[in-house]
Every structure is written in structure tokens, then in C-alpha cells.
């Protein structure tokens, strides 16, 4: 059956005009929710949705829920870039992006309920760790996914960087370069940061490296540069120079730069004295000096692109098991990490000769 005949058949089944059916299947916004529901219901029965090209999006409006700082380039740059990616993906279609600013802790549930019950909203993207939001979204009969977050009750699809594996791989890289001990300097504001901590601990276990939180974990009380500098300055004051870690794995480029700045003030050279590595994303990074920070770059804009097409896939295949899509990170090798294996080799040779 040709496309035109299917549209005609859908029009007869739904008692709508062929032009209305065509607008629904084209993702146009000038269609009532009732008409869309009729067309989608019968299109699924006829198997039409499975044959629609992946590039055609069948949504009129997407609601993005994130912290207020995510909607400004001067706030949460990571989420801001994800949102820009979503906008880039939908700009060729007749799809609107609605914004829902929520607090990370203590989100305004009443505002969220009002927005998701709006008939104009077809899909919901949630970027906040809040189990109540996930529950309400899953019961809304709307398409809903989480980004950089996970529904522990397994109701919603999620798209996230593989934080656990990224941290594991970064720590392994340092261990393979001969670094002992390694300090993890990060904030623990979100579940994603706890996953990184778990990955770091697992790498220590697999490489037979002793881990003690009081010695090998430094927690920053936020993610701003000044907070990181104060935290690390206090850390240095309580450590003799010879007791410093061989390398520091930082939870962001901001923290890594703060460490390097404090080291410079104390005459400690990177990477000659201590190596520094970062876990972050690579968009909008500005080099402030000649030191190029070795990093594991987390996917950022990729999350926005994938979220749009996961929603599209869920629309055409509504009945299936929810999944967690983990996007892999990429290594960037700069000049902030020294290979100290040669030092250890010389040490072992010297010990052997003395014996």
C-alpha cells in the first residue's frame, strides 16, 4: 500500500481529513491532541509508524526540566550545552522546546505537575536527581526520559555518560603510569559523582592500590573555582611536601585548574612534582597557560542528540523494556601527567644492588 493510500485509509478510520492526518505524520504543531491520538493509535495498528524514517520527528513540544543555571551559558555549562544540542536537533522540525527550571534539592512539584499535564507537551526530558519527578513523569502518559540521571525504579529510559567506567579508566591510566598514591578531588553533589567515586575505588581494587577515604579522597563543597582553591589550600596546609600524592584526579577542569594554580603559588611543579588529570567535557575550554591538562572527556552534546532520537524511538515502539543508554568517554592526552614508571624502575634496581 502506498503512502497516499495509507493516509487516505487513516483518514477514513479516524474520520479526519487527509490534510490533518498528513500534518500529524509530519510532526506539525497545528493539530489538536485528540487528532494526534487518533492518528497514532490507528497508525500503530497498521504498522505505519515502524516505516516512518528516523529523521521525521512526531512531536510538537518537548519539556526540558533542569536546574535554573542550565538555561544560561554563565551557569551550568554542561547542561546548557546539552540543551543547545537538543535545540539544534529539533530546529529543522516544527517542534517547540519548553523549559522547566527546578531546584536540584526540593523541586517545585506543583509547577512540574502543571507543566506535564499541559496537552501541548508531548515529551519530557529530566536532568535532575529526583525520584518524585520520575514517578510523576512515568504516570503522565507522556514520553519521558532522564539525561545524566537514572530512575532507580526502572520506569524511565535514561541517557548518561558512563561515569563509573570513565573514572575507572582515568584512575587506571594513572596507575599504569606508575602513580602511587592517587588523590581523587571532586564534589559529591549528585549520584553521577558517586558513580565516579565507585569507579575510582574499583580501579584501586583491581590494581591492588590501597584506598582510604581520609587519605585518598578530597571532597569539594561545590563546583566553583574559589571553593576548590580554598579546599585544596587547606589540604596542602595539612600535608608535608614529601607526603603529597603522586597524582591528583580532579572531578572537573575547574577543580584541576584550581589545583594547578595553588601548586604554582607554593612552587610545586606540574607534572614534575605532582601530576594532574581531569574528568570533564571539552566544550568551551580555554587554556589559561601552557599546561595542557590530560583529561577524560565526558560526552556532552551527544546526550542532547541521543535524547531526541530515543524519544522518537519510544514513540514508534511504545511497549518495550526501559533501558539505560551509557555513552562512552574519550581520552585526551595533554602534558599534565608524567610517566613515573622509570623512577620506580630505578628504585627497584637500586634496592636490588644494595641487597
Automatic annotation (TrEMBL):
Keyword Transport recorded: no
Record-annotated HTH lacI-type domain positions: 5-59
Protein keywords: DNA-binding, Repressor, Transcription, Transcription regulation
GO molecular function: DNA-binding transcription factor activity; transcription cis-regulatory region binding
Domain of life: Bacteria
InterPro entries named among the record's database cross-references: HTH_LacI, LacI/GalR-like_sensor, Lambda_DNA-bd_dom_sf, Peripla_BP_I
Name listed for the protein in its UniProt record: LacI family transcriptional regulator
Amino acid at each position: 500500500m502506498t503512502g497516499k493510500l495509507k493516509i487516505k485509509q487513516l483518514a477514513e478510520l479516524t474520520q479526519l481529513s487527509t490534510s490533518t492526518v498528513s500534518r500529524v505524520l509530519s510532526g506539525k504543531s497545528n493539530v489538536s491532541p485528540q487528532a494526534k491520538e487518533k492518528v497514532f493509535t490507528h497508525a500503530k495498528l497498521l504498522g505505519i509508524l515502524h516505516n516512518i524514517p528516523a529523521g521525521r520527528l512526531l512531536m510538537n513540544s518537548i519539556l526540558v526540566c533542569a536546574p535554573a543555571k542550565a538555561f544560561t551559558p554563565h551557569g551550568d555549562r554542561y547542561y546548557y550545552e546539552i540543551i543547545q544540542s537538543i535545540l539544534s536537533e529539533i530546529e529543522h522540525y516544527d517542534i517547540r522546546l519548553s523549559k522547566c527550571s527546578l531546584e536540584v534539592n526540593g523541586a517545585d512539584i506543583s509547577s512540574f505537575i502543571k507543566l506535564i499535564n499541559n496537552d501541548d507537551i508531548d515529551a519530557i526530558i529530566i536532568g535532575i536527581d529526583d525520584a518524585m519527578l520520575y514517578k510523576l513523569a512515568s504516570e503522565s502518559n507522556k514520553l519521558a526520559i532522564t539525561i545524566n540521571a537514572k530512575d532507580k525504579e526502572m520506569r524511565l529510559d535514561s541517557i548518561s555518560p558512563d561515569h563509573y567506567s570513565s573514572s575507572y579508566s582515568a584512575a587506571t591510566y594513572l596507575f599504569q603510569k606508575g602513580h602511587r598514591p592517587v588523590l581523587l578531588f571532586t564534589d559529591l553533589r549528585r549520584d553521577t559523582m558517586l558513580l565516579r567515586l565507585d569507579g575510582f575505588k574499583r580501579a584501586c581494587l583491581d590494581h591492588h592500590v590501597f584506598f582510604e577515604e581520609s587519605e585518598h579522597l578530597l571532597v569539594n563543597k561545590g563546583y566553583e573555582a574559589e571553593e576548590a582553591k580554598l579546599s585544596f589550600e587547606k589540604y596542602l596546609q595539612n600535608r608535608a611536601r614529601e607526603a603529597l600524592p603522586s597524582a591528583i584526579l580532579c572531578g572537573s577542569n575547574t577543580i584541576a585548574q584550581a589545583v594547578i594554580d595553588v601548586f604554582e603559588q607554593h612552587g610545586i611543579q606540574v607534572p614534575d612534582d605532582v601530576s594532574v588529570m581531569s574528568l570533564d567535557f571539552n566544550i568551551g575550554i580555554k587554556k589559561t597557560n601552557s599546561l595542557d591538562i590530560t583529561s577524560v572527556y565526558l560526552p556532552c552534546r551527544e546526550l542532547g542528540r541521543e535524547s531526541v532520537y530515543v524519544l522518537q524511538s519510544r514513540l514508534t515502539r511504545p511497549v518495550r523494556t526501559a533501558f539505560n543508554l551509557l555513552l562512552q568517554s574519550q581520552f585526551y592526552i595533554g602534558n599534565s601527567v608524567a610517566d613515573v614508571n622509570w623512577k620506580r624502575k630505578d628504585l627497584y634496581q637500586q634496592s636490588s644492588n644494595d641487597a
